[in-house]
Amino acid sequence: MPMTITEKILAAHAGRKQVTPGENIWIDTDVLMTHDVCGPPTIAIFKQQFGEKARVFDAQKVVIIPDHYIFTADQHARRNIDILRAFADEQNLPHYYDVGGERYKGVCHVALAEEGWTRPGEVLFGTDSHTCTAGAFGQFATGIGNTDAAFILGTGKLWVKVPETMRFIIDGKIPPYIMAKDIILQIIGDIGVDGASYRTMEFFGSAIEAMTMEERMTLCNMVIEAGSKNGIVAADKKTETFILARTNAPYTIYRNDIDARFHSRRTYKAEELLPMVAKPHSPDNKASARELQGEKVTRAYIGSCTGGKLSDFVAAAEILHGQQVAIDTFIVPATTEVDRNLRATKINGRNLVQIFEDAGVQIGKPSCAACLGGPADTFGRTHDDEICISTTNRNFPGRMGSKNSQVYLASPYTVAASALTGKITDPREFLV
Amino acid sequence: MKNKITGRVYVLGDDIDTDQIIPAVHLVYSLDDPNERKKYGEFALSGVPPAQAGLPAGNIPFIKKDQAVSQFSIIIAAKNFGCGSSREHAPAALQIAGVKAVIAPSYARIFYRNAVDGGFLIPAESQESLTGYFDTGDIVELDLANKKVHNRRSGQTFAIKDLGQVAGIIEAGGIFAYARKTGMLQEAADV
Ligand code: SF4
Predict the structure, then answer these.
(1) Which of A9, A237, A254, B18 has the most CB atoms lying inside 10 A of its own CB?
(2) What letter would DSSP give residue A416?
């Protein structure tokens, strides 16, 4: 029977020739990732279930990337890092990216890609819902809870229900003012926050082929906002170039069979896409930036796994260059590598850090920072009735800190344009 | 697994996300320290905007001030319950607060898995949203064997769906118990 990419990866990891959507199967894990929020409870369950002396299933396949609550005085948050460090020590885990030194990375989903963990055809489980980001590389990648992660730590295996695949075809040439964020906000707005529940979202078409790996990551990052189990983009030459520069581990490229069965198909013409915004308090509460033009915002935020990559800051800098922001504006590079590249990348002779500082923007240290609120002293966190326009991926009530604050989600272009005016602004106003 | 659960119901709307179930600021507490663990009960559902807390009236706190266990042991919600993050702290917080079951027409996938694999609570699926038929505080009887839920106040009974392929895991009490029962896992030597 013909299969999709996701079905093929799952079949290969279950040791089967064939799998069918809807069936529950046990599969092998290539990479298990955890971080400082979910790592400690995962470790506790692992010890409880397998014993104090238990060893992890394969120290080479466990990746620990603290990123959530890093630059805080909160004692409980700091204790979480201590627990991770002690566990990495005890288990001799080579892939622990410790805080406070050279190895520190920052936001796990961006770090996983930078460090070559997002290999085509493999299975990545992570104790974070945005683990789906790695689908951009043709990997089966999905978020799980602590109990499941503890089970994998001990056995290397987990049951999954084989998902049906929804196909999203984006054809044509993407206009210069449109970013992957606009496309995914459009799609989530069209299908709703549960529009892809239990299913795979596959992105395909000439516009996807033309996209950079970072833009594909933005697309796949937010499939969870439509309830999807995983996102997937077929690996191509770009994927291979990216991966080969970062790892020499083997990988497998799978393609859909010609007559593979899909749950549904939706087609978008790239030329018709608009700069999009998700209004408070749901990622599917869509409107175009133009429809909301002039609505007041009181702060802007550019960061996170979905909106804190180098290309996101390059986009923001194109707009902020030589201008002054009108409202409090916060920038948080996802990782230390992005942070270094901000200094190495120049527009008209000024590097991105200089451009942002000239524009009056505050720059934070690489981590999740205010994307999920966090402890009271978190950089960029809301504390009152702020109205924030943000490149992050969630705008649930209270997500960025205060229950009274409101969050609009948008592309780095739209957020930067709005930072200049203090109002929601279509980026075409500033892009010539 | 208990086949019959009777308790007071707390009614919520659509898309209750994990930040509403347990706001991220509280995730720093340890789930296995008996004292810190109580914090999760204390802050369970504290992110729900007051107007939507305890429908239809709203403004009904799930947990009384300075307590860690709720008077409500069953939650009836509308679609896509538990969307958002993968934090297992969400079903754990509800369990610590005394919730035995949630009844909703659909769940976010990771929340559902976590509830089942961790054995925290029973995520029962109703055929349609039942929020219009229950008031917060009603006494509800959830009968899993006969797949129905009954409202004592109104006398109405509604069907719930079969647990399907995960029934075995729910009955065993979680993925570890299930794996031991089916021989996938041997007993750990020094537990
Ligand atoms: S940046 Fe935000 S969405 Fe991404 S992993 Fe961190 S908290 Fe989660």
Answers:
(1) B18
(2) H
